[in-house]
Structure formats: C-alpha cells, structure tokens
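SEQUENCE-TO-STRUCTURE ENTRY
===========================
Question of interest: how does this chain fold, as expressed in backbone structure tokens?
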Amino acid sequence: MNDNTGYPDTVNPNIEPLISIVTVCYNSRKTITATIDSLLCQTYTNFEYIIIDGVSTDGTVDIVRSYESAFREKAIPFKWTSEKDAGIYEAMNKGINQSNGKLVALLNSDDWYCSDTLENIVKAYKANPEIGVFHGVVKFWKDNNCHTLYGASDLFIGKGIFPHHATCFIKKSVYNSIGLYDTRYPIASDYDMMLRIKKAGVGFLMIEKVLTNFSLQGISSSRPLSLDMIAIQKKHGIISKRKYYLLSPLYRILNFIYPFLK
C-alpha cells in the first residue's frame, strides 16, 4: 500500500482522538434507550454523539431530549436534530457532515455497543495510523437471545461478504476523499461504500472482539437480498450487465413473495 493510500494520521500517544458516533432514527422509542445508554457507559469518553431523527411521532424525540443533561454532566458533546429526510442514507450523510472526529461510526437506533468498544477502537487506531477502516465482530440478537456472531475480512468484499457496517469506524478523511453514501441504494448503500473504499486502496483492520450488538429487527434484516446488491455489483463491474438483467426478474419475484413466506 502506498504511504498516503490509507490517509495516515500523525498520532500523538498523549492525545486522545475524538470519535464521532452518529445514530439515525425514526420512531425508535422502544429501542433507542439501549443505544444511548451503551454510549454513556463507554470506558473511553472522548467522543461526540450526533442523533439525526426523521421527525418521529412516537415519543422518540422526547427520549432523546431527556438525555441532554446526562451527556452534559459527562462533558460529552451531544447534538440532535429532528427533520424530514429522504431515507436512512441521506440521514447518515447529514450526521457525517456534522461530525468533527478523526473516526466516524454509524450506530443504528436498535443496536448498541459493548462498554469497551471505543477503547478497543482507539487502541487499534493509535497502533495503526495508516489504516482507514477499523471493524470487528457483531453479535446478532433476536427475541432477546444471542443468535450468532459475525465478523468478516475485507478480502471478500467483491463476493458480497464484507465487514458489518455496524462495527465500522471510518476515518473522516476517507469520507472527505471518496464521498458519502449513495442514496440511490436505499437498502445496501453500505455495501457500495465498502466497495468504493476498497477500490481506493484504503486499509482495513479487523479487531477480533465483539464491538456491536445488532438487532435482527432492522431494515436490512427484514427484507430478502435486494436489487440494490446486484445493481451495486454491476456498477463496480463485479457482474456483467447481462447477468444483472438476467437476475433482476428473479429478485423482483423474491421481493414479491417474501412477505408471504414469513
């Protein structure tokens, strides 16, 4: 890898890097408390927390507002907005644009971090300043039970097997260089982002620890493999246009019948 490919930082071991955590939410009253609490319990506290709400109507905003004093007492920067957006990835882009940290993470409003997640990320960041994406293991939960563990190397991104988005901490300089999430892909723009980062030659580092707990009730877990995935693979030359047009009718059929199979 070239010296500048991974956007290396000059790391001072005596200075703790600021991390930006962005949570996008909409009508998340039942789950967002656990998400926010997992940040207030972090062993590493030099982070800012940004919540982008899509004008929730179920009391989510009241819950978010109730945490202002808790973050203020811990001297952790906390800001939130509630306004309409065109989808989850546009909201994520808003949060990234507001972020000030060296690293940016996107934590969904029904997921939560382990108490030492940020501490483990900072240790890896200080030891590997040339790396652009830090990621780890995710623990999947369903009906309050641990379902499975998942962690993936960046070596198989082209095959559709890639680091779980909820565990990724990406340098702000990477976003500044390659751009934000493509809102044309409402379900799988994170996959497109992983491919773009990989193509740019940015280094990935997997931390072999559970970083994030992921609820299987989220948007991307509630639908079959989407047309977005093959459209993204066509965009990046992983599959041919001919294969894309052959697969598209099959995926549309699967999308149609999936609700009846649940």
Notes: Strands lie at 19-25, 47-53, 78-82, 103-106, 112-113, 133-142, 145-150, 169-171, 204-215. The two ends are 46 Å apart (CA to CA).
